[in-house]
Amino acid sequence: MKEINVGIMGCGVVGTGVAKLLMENADLLESRIGLRLNLKYVADIDTATDRGIIFDKGVFIPDANTIIDDPDIHIVAELIGGKTAAGELTLRALDKGKHVVTANKALIASSGGAIFRKAAEKGLDFAFEASVGGCMPVIKTIRESLAGNRIYAMKGILNGTCNYILTKISKEGCTFETALGEAQHKGYAEADPFLDVEGHDSAHKLAILISLAYGMEMNLEDIHVEGITGITPMDIRYAGEFGFKIKLLAITKNHGDRVEARVHPAMIPEQNPLSHVNGSMNALTINGDAAGTTMLYGAGAGMMPTASAVVGDIADIARNIMTGSRMRVPILGSPEKNIKKIPIIPVTEISTGYYIRLEAADHPGVLSRISGILGDRGISIKSVHQKGRRSNGTVPVVMITHMALEKEVQRALDEIASLDAIPEKPVLIRIEEEEQ
User: Fold this and answer.
1) I need a labelling partner for 292 at 20 to 30 A (CA). Which of 8, 122, 177, 339 fits?
2) CATH class of the domain whose range is 138-299
């Protein structure tokens, strides 16, 4: 075999980047792989828009089915995005005996099981490094480099949009809306940013990571998800006074027969390396029994960083084809027969520290009543600060608690919110510290 033919389905931002990399670095890739990667087709329903690439005649086509039906195509890169069409085309490509590479975390998190089974049935590689962490080799690290480790925990900043917004608010004191507008202007956020700012994009990525780390079936539905829309400059400022930074974290902890899996804003100590991950960058810490704590850091999105991960997967599969190896590394790091159902712990059953901010009427006895409600629920206050009185006669009260059970904290806040002296719903942000 002198060359391996590649077809790209979808020529948006990432698809364009992959095409550029395959064409511009063709000689470099050939020198490293040992054979030529030939970009035979790039399919997109929009063939009129200028992508800044000059394709050879017949390469840029409008119908992805041409790629799937061509018996000479060895590897298909699914870069359409979404679930329905992308899922149907992916399964068809596997049915036709083609290896598939994707960056589509939503598709994997929601329909990965069916795709993995189809790939295993056909003895084909299905690769998805670009689905989590952009150019960071997160999946390869967990699946291969840390294969000898029991993974105890992972914490990550996995969404560049949210990290950019929180960094902007932190450094400039602007509102969420202002920071989001700038993120959209710079191309870090979509016109409809819902999946990013409400935490769902990070949840898709976390679902993939926990399956790899724990050898468990994909379980997106039970991951607790909160976004960053409620984070204010005031909370970021108060967090700094206590020595914390606020980040949108994807968190998982292995309890053996059950795992934690949650996405939400969290306060982390300023000495934690994750607190210094700013702008649109991503990072993930992985704690294993042999390796200790490993941290990966890099661009989590963007044309060329994501394309780099896709092309890396294409190169891996090309090497497998060349040497006659199929499914050398199982898709989820373990043979399918060893993949288990492991329940995710409801967020109400976790224990952590908490930041609580509330507006309280400036009346005698209010603070002691609040403390009494917390104490009745077994919640110990580590620190409390009472800020200056507002023009409406209320006083901001900020508390940091010791470790407490989530469901008791929520019950206490419901009771506190029902007090006549508390005109607004209290704000709660969880605290993640290393000793926890």
Assistant:
1) 339
2) alpha beta
